[in-house]
From TrEMBL:
The keyword Signal applies. This is CPA1 protein. One of its GO terms (biological process) is proteolysis. InterPro entries: M14A-like_propep, M14A_act_pep, Peptidase_M14. Keywords: Carboxypeptidase, Disulfide bond, Hydrolase, Metal-binding, Metalloprotease, Protease, Signal, Zinc. One of its GO terms (cellular component) is extracellular space. Signal peptide: none annotated. GO terms for molecular function: metallocarboxypeptidase activity; zinc ion binding. Its cofactor is Zn(2+).
Amino acid sequence: MCWSGYALGQWPGQGSCSTTQVDFWKPPSHVNQTVDVHVPRDNLSAVLDLLQQHSIPYHTMIGNVRQAVEKHMQDNHKARARTAGRPARVNDFDFSVYHEWNEIDDFITDVQQTYPQIASLSSEAATFEGRSIKTLKLGKPSTSGETNPAIWIDAAIHCREWISTATVLYAIDQVS
């Protein structure tokens, strides 16, 4: 991941940037709503010129995305260092930080081992890297022989969707 020289800015959703490369982090959805864009350093002056030509107000939210990401990663590393070397456990899992694959795997394995009466773990496939894709099923077995109502929740499908994993892990923690 290379964020060097990128900036994140915000301006009201007016005008067009069709000839300038920007990455919409909050795309336009209706007239006069603000949009958040990620602008490569090479395109920054063109974007600023376009905004000024059309009198579109804007402000910089993050002046240097790379520095912000690096600071976040350092803070995250410090927070995770508190449990370094220990498997992620149900009783001390920190939901306020980003967790790596092995920590998530340890957590869902611990949920199954801590709550075997309601949790079952299976693996039906593998990732491109050969990692097991696990399914954690929570619920009490039916005593009537009928199928219980169920919901299916996916997480960790795409790397930029890290919040879905954190949300599902938190939900698992609350249900188990």
